Amino acid sequence: MKTSPLINTQESSWAWRPVSTSMVVGPPAPRGKPGEILRDNKVYKCIFCKGTGIRCLGGTQGAKCPVCKGRTKIAVTPPVMMCAFCNGRGEDQPRMALTCSVCKGKGLVHIEEPFEVCPNCHGRGRPIASKLYCSECKGKGVIAIKKGRTFGHPIGTEKKAMKVIYQLGKAGKNAIADRLKISTAYAELVTKSLLKKRLLEKEGGGIFVLTAGGNEYVETRLHSIRINRLDK
């Protein structure tokens, strides 16, 4: 809804100017830093139009911002976190007119607590060298931890792979394949499954380590078979 109050622009002249009253809010809250959880506010400055209400590209005159609808502010239900997929820009690609497919141009996403860093994309919101958002966390970079269950249960060869990683402290798919006498392709499938179950996490360079849940599983549920840590 818009009204047009009479505003004195100079000492001797008056002019009618439209004023939007569709969103009555206080000043926008700070947007925070990557990985920071924001719990205390719901209204933030629109990042897609830089708080101007107008989206301008390439020196053009611009049009009403499609995200905030010209209001200069956006509302997101707390707790929120900077969108990992677009790095908080709100854009699908830098300096593009398309909004981010994850945060819908807001640069912030609602998260459920408790949560942990996504084991599939490691907080990036997308797989390496991919233009699509992560299928596990839907581009947020974090996933909610379900009550009563913080990790999945390994089966068959997955348990043996966990034992190998536990013994070595860390291992890549080649080392796992060599120890278990399986192909590297099969070892890769096993590690991907364990990543989804949040029993493994990537350290970089194709090296895997057990998560806290993975260590707990090995030490409490696989105790019937003697396992010696080689890094101790």
Task: Note down, in words, how this protein is organized.
Among the domains are: 85 residues, no CATH class; 65 residues, Arc Repressor Mutant, subunit A, CATH 1.10.10. The strands form seven sheets. The chain has a three-stranded antiparallel beta sheet. Strands 1-4 form a two-stranded antiparallel ribbon. A two-stranded antiparallel ribbon has the order 2-3. It contains four helices and 15 strands. It has 232 residues and is α+β, with helices and mostly antiparallel strands. It starts with a strand and ends in an 11-residue tail after the last helix. The N terminus is likely disordered. The radius of gyration is 25 Å and the shape is elongated. The longest helix has 13 residues. α2 packs across α3. Helices cover 19% and strands 19% of the residues.
Low-confidence spans: 1-26
Helix-strand makeup class: alpha+beta
CA gyration radius, whole angstroms? 25 Å
Major sheet: order of its strands?
13-15-14
- CA-CA gap between termini: 69 Å
The total count of helices amounts to 4
How much of the sequence lies in strands comes to: 15-25%
- On the 0 to 100 scale, the average pLDDT is 79
Number of strands: 15
Approximately how much helix is present in the residues?
10-25%
* Order of secondary-structure elements: EEEEEEEEEEEEHEHHEEH
Overall shape: it is elongated
